[in-house]
Design goal:
single chain; alpha/beta; Metallo-beta-lactamase, Chain A; Rossmann fold; 2 domains; six-stranded parallel β-sheet; binds flavin mononucleotide; binds fe (ii) ion
Length: about 400
């Protein structure tokens, strides 16, 4: 446990979870994570910003003791999700006079998820402020980053944005600040893909609002802080833009090798046509890596055999997740192999309905891929080259 000064009277008092390996019972955490919580001491009043995951409650209390905090006036809850507010009931009990500062929606959620009585809450609206004496906290409502109740807290005098999950990264590290964006880029992009990507258009609006603040430090709820914030803001602008790369992500599963043969031939054809390819065998792949690769690829291709009249369950799961995270992918296709019949292609198409992507003609073959099938895959590669060129041309014209 550690109390770390960010600026005079502004401290990190969170917890690092070095060995957590799974989040939301779904997302692999190869690098662990941190639950960042903050302490702001004004000349007259003291505020806590967020708490930590309940598994780290003890460390959080130790940090409060270490920081010499005897009384707290406000506990700011940017987000009701338990990785940040799970220790709120304990903090509320520890500081019975503290008001719990929340958005209106968050008041509902902390009541239903954490049994915080609504009368403990001070509801704030967009751009409301609270004075701590020489420091002013301003609240910026940021719904759907990534929950409906989310707000960000901006410390005006010090130009620090406590950005909640926005700009976060699942990385356990002793580095308080990011030194070089290249060190954290992969983790931050992965976090964006897993958590933020479904809300791309909301984030675009929020980024526009944030540019009006003179932010000098971004203090997210996971991973290291950014000073200056420009590199992560630039990365986010890139990820949320409509621009896609000349890249095909192929996610596939194969029980007996036919689909795999198709994938390999197809990937070779794409590479020979100067299209970047990323291949993920679903039997051994990390779903977070797949999500990350989908952030800016122009095309996704799902390869699956037919199993019990539909897609292999791993392919169905990957399609379901892709549909949830809604990458900006412009084209999609299904390839694979079957034995006697089923509804694989139609089922997968239906599962990708929320993707704003044009479905290309499938290549779906009976048994082992023959020469005709391999030629069809080459034709699909030609189509993709043409389609990618068309969108590159149209985006140049639009620009
Ligand atoms: C457990 C299992 C269930 C299957 N169910 C179907 C099915 O419902 N319909 C079908 O056309 N083929 C079915 N097949 C056959 C496979 O789709 C076929 O063998 C295909 O070529 C396998 O492709 P792969 O080599 O990429 O695994 C099934 C195969 C297995 C092993
Ligand atoms: Fe969250
Ligand atoms: Fe979080």
């Amino acid at each position: 446990m550690a109390v770390r000064e960010i600026l005079p009277d502004i401290y990190w008092i969170g917890a690092i979870d070095w060995d957590r390996r799974l989040f939301d019972a779904l997302i692999p955490l190869p690098e662990g994570t941190s639950y960042n919580a903050y302490l702001v001491k004004g000349s007259e009043k003291t505020a806590l910003i967020d708490t930590v995951d309940p598994s780290k409650e003890f460390e959080y209390v130790c940090n409060l003791v270490k920081a010499g905090i005897e009384s707290v006036d406000y506990i700011i809850v940017n987000h009701a999700e338990q990785d940040h507010s799970g220790s709120l009931p304990m903090a509320a009990e520890l500081f019975p006079r503290a008001q719990i500062v929340v958005s209106e929606k968050c008041r509902d959620l902390v009541q239903s998820l954490l049994e915080i009585p609504p009368e403990r809450c001070l509801v704030v609206k967009d751009r409301d402020t609270i004075s701590l004496g020489n420091k002013t906290l301003e609240f910026i409502m940021a719904p759907w980053v990534h929950w409906p109740e989310t707000m960000l807290t901006y410390l005006q005098e010090d130009h620090v944005l406590f950005s909640c999950d926005l700009f976060g990264s699942h990385r356990a590290t002793s580095d308080l600040f990011v030194d070089d964006i290249r060190e954290i880029y992969h983790s931050a992009k992965r976090y964006y893909a897993e958590i933020m990507m479904p809300f791309r258009s909301n984030i675009r609006d929020h980024l526009a609002i944030l540019t009006s603040c003179d932010i000098r430090i971004i203090a997210p709820s996971h991973g290291p802080l950014y000073q200056p914030p420009d590199p992560i803001l630039a990365a986010y602008r890139d990820w949320i833009s409509d621009e896609v790369k000349n890249e095909v992500v192929i996610i596939y599963v194969s029980m007996h090798g036919s689909t795999e043969k198709m994938v390999n031939h197809f990937a070779g054809a794409l590479m020979e046509r100067n299209v970047s390819v990323r291949i993920f065998n679903l039997a051994v792949s990390d779903i977070g890596e797949i999500a990350m690769s989908l952030v800016d690829a122009a095309t996704i291709v799902i390869g699956t055999p037919t199993m019990l009249f539909g897609p292999h369950p791993l392919a169905a799961n990957a399609a379901y997740i892709t549909n949830l995270i809604r990458p900006k992918t412009k084209f999609a296709a299904v390839i694979g192999s079957y034995g006697w019949g089923g509804n694989t292609v139609e089922t997968l198409k239906g599962m990708l309905s929320r993707l704003n992507a044009e479905m290309l003609d499938p290549v779906y073959v009976k048994g082992i891929p023959d020469q005709a099938c391999l030629r069809e895959l080459e034709t699909m590669a030609d189509t993709i080259v043409r389609k990618h060129r068309e969108i590159a041309v149209s985006s140049q014209q639009a620009g």
